[in-house]
Amino acid sequence: MTSTATAMCAPSSTRSPSVWVPTLYLAQGLPYFAVATVAMQMFKSLGLSNTEISHWTAFLGAAWIFKPLWSPFLELASSKKKVVVGFQLLGALFLGLVALALHLPVWLGAVIALLTLAAFASATHDIACDGLYIASLTAKQQAQYAGWTGTFFNAGRFISAGGMLLLADHFERTLGPVAAWTIVFCLYAAMMAALGLYNGSALPQAPNAVTQASASAIAGTLKEVIADFFRKPGIWVSVLFIILFRAGEAQVQTIGPLFLRDTVAAGGLGLTTGQVGTLYGTAGTIAFIAGSIGGGYFASWLGLKRAILLLILAVNLPNFAFWYLSTFRPDDMLMIGAALSAEMFGYGFGFVGLILYMMQVVAPGRFQTAHYAFATGVMQLGQVLFRWISGDIQAALGYQKFFIWVLLSAIPVAVLSQLIPMSANRDDRASATSS
User: Fold this and answer.
1) What's the chain's Rg over C-alpha atoms?
2) Residues 8, 110: contact at Cβ < 8 Å?
3) CA contacts within 13 A on the Cβ side of 379
4) Would you say 51 and 174 are in contact if contact means Cβ atoms under 8 Å apart?
5) 121-153, pLDDT tens digit by residue?
6) pTM for the whole structure
7) With left for phi above 0 and alpha for psi between -120 and 50, is residue 388 left, alpha or beta?
8) Distance CA 84, CA 17 (A)
9) CA nearest neighbour of 269 among 229, 318, 315, 327
């Protein structure tokens, strides 16, 4: 009996993780950036206003808010591999149908509906993807390949914000915008289908533990997890802090790329789709990754309590770059690229603070993993709320004043960071240890 239990708890893969970790996390990144980044540029090319774009992309982000609510039910599947591969292929289907929907008379409604399905497929895949990684690797292997997960997830950013936008720009100029974005989403579908088929062979099975739990029993446990989360001391202050942390960053990440595309007459820089792809897909992505790595080492060295204000400033002060660009509107691509690189580096560097706050302050307790997932849902809620209002505020203020507003949006969370605890309640840590 003991040997059976041990075998079930052991990692299930005899394959080298190097043959499946890259494709697993590339398949996590591609649909996320297709929905969160590329769709925004598509809507801009197809004539939607900044207000409409901010509303629709915020709506699409809601899938990542609620994913903790159905994550426990994925344990009812016989293996995590089946869930992962299934949702990769579903993602391919929905992204491919977006390409077809662009040619319908009611194209916008159809595209939004299909991108919503793609978002929910991607969010569900995230859960199973991380679960398979944890279940299939030893603790040593998890640490060894942790860098690979971030690298190949961000490869999805590079392909999307770089390569796909460059292709879209080329085909916009030669075939027109509808044909261009049809090709882009067909390519997304082809890549996701290829990854799904490859991972169907390469991934370890990662069988879920044999359990007699029913859906109703899981629902009861989920209810207990949610109730315990909201009983945590100071949880509402923590929720407010997490939401406010994203106030400036979510707005500038929404409007910034649209400002680059807008015409000079409308206050933008008048860049092409391809130029935006070049800036964000190369220098921007490299700066973000470098900032994320540097921020992690910085926070580890200084500790969260001492580092948090500096991390908040790192996220927000580089947004000054957009105010500079909106005020002086340079046409030198090197200068624009340097400004965007500074902003993306600060974003990556400082965002570590929010991740550590959720891990070290909010998550500890009886249900540490589940409560971290709920905290990430709150984090996504902050992103959605501020993305939603960003277009309306920019339309009311214009670009230059909007970017000043973005800088001012950082003040509440900076002040709050100095007033609230930066460590978990002692009872939470004790509960986590005992469990």
Assistant:
1) 22
2) no
3) 21
4) no
5) 999 998 888 888 878 888 788 877 877 888 898
6) 0.87
7) alpha
8) 16
9) 327
